[in-house]
């Protein structure tokens, strides 16, 4: 039987061995966790084997200290066991922390590689991966899902005008609005620039897709201001549905993007892909391509329609009108090709070309002592274009007489938010002698607002009202209303579309100052107009 002192020695050694066992067991658990985080190296595998061997050795040692008389060698063995357990735990803990650190680092690296820095949305690469996975799952389960391509209208102009800092702030706010308008199950991504995408999955009904898309559009179109400056953007959303419209990712993205372009051109905020719309888009692309070549090959030409004073029918000015001398279809009116020029951004190039043509003509006329102002039509957006204003300023500087010989006819195509900028530019040019007309009055929803807010010199009444006024009392009322407003604002008036003597009588009856139309002359080449002046 063991003495009391031997019992205490056994208990003390047992406590030491138990401590070593506990440390070893905790280390083994940590090793098992480490194996879940990453693949173990040969060194770590060896450490696992060693830990299990030590475990059984320590168990045997514990059994010996509890059942046998303590030998002096036991002290050394017990302390060695504890030190070994601590060493093993330290080695495993070091490997574990390194593995966790590397895993977090790789996770962060993967996040930044697959997400957009500004919005936190998945980027194009990650979105494409998820789209392929969604396609695979939908094929297996025979499900539908929708792809939305979301483009921001006017963002490029805002970015260039207000600066990239404001542009980034707008994109961040738009991203938040898109996120709020979608469900947690829907994937959102920023494809780049001002373009986003969303995967609507699952789809319960096609009407459900349209509702979600409209919610996104309405959210984006809510009033937006950055640093107190209005910065509202429009939105165009194109929708393509799997498998109705396409059964692979390339075609699905292409058709969603085509739908987005159709949405932008049609003025609709949301457009779901249609085959017919694609055919129209292909036709648009073909016409735009022909128009680009027409500009390069000098197929555009300028005709001039006289504007006369109605009191004595004397020619007082002329309006420059662009025509396209098409090799197959003959002479085309601007209504046949200008809308395509505006869609493709070619209108700015055409405006510059027209201005230079007019300046050359006026310069030739000045040498012949012909003094006749030329008016030309331009949209408000075209007038604000920096390249156009730079060219206009250069021409005015090089030809001091030019301002008195030019008249700019503005049409209402700009947002009312741009009124301040238009007003400031008009005042600057009016100080230099330029005059401005509001063209096509009565045909746009904000014509009266434009007239009241901008410093025009002349109001031009659209030809549709003049032609219809012969038999239509409503058209007569509009003409009378326009003449009364012009009189109050001290503006001269010009009637377009005077095609016959009946229309001329109506124009004179309402006191309109000037007129133009086939009754006086069609649009003619410059040398024919010149002959009318001599």
Structure notes:
This protein is of the alpha/beta class. It is 57% helix and 17% strand. The chain has 19 helices and 16 strands. Mean pLDDT is 81; it is low at 1-6.
Q: Averaging pLDDT over every residue, what do you get?
A: 81
The largest beta-sheet arranges its strands as 8-9-11-12-13-14-15-16
Number of strands: 16
Q: In what range is the share of β-strand residues? A: 15-25%
**Secondary structure: helix percent:** 55-70%
Calculate Rg over CA atoms: 40 Å
- Rounded to the nearest angstrom, the distance between the terminal CA atoms is 144 Å
Instruction: Note the overall shape.
Output: elongated
Detail the poorly predicted runs.
1-6
What does the main sheet amount to? 8 strands, mixed, barrel
| Helix/sheet category | alpha/beta
Secondary structure tally, helices: 19
In short:
57% of the residues lie in helices and 17% in strands. With 534 residues, it is α/β, with parallel strands linked by helices.
Give the topology, please.
Elements (H helix, E strand, L loop, with lengths): L3 H34 L4 H26 L4 H43 L9 H18 L3 E9 L1 H8 L1 H18 L5 E6 L2 E6 L5 H15 L4 E2 L2 E2 L3 E9 L6 H18 L3 E3 L2 H22 L3 E10 L4 E13 L3 E3 L5 H7 L2 H21 L6 E6 H5 L1 H13 L7 E6 L7 H13 L3 E7 L5 H7 L4 E4 L1 H6 L4 H16 L3 E4 L5 H9 L4 E2 L10 H8 L1
Parallel strand pairs: 6-7, 9-11, 11-12, 12-13, 13-14, 14-15, 15-16
Antiparallel strand pairs: 1-3, 1-6, 2-3, 4-5, 8-9, 8-16, 9-10
Observed structural traits:
534 residues; alpha/beta; 8-stranded mixed barrel; 5-stranded mixed beta sheet; 19 helices; 16 strands; elongated; disordered N terminus
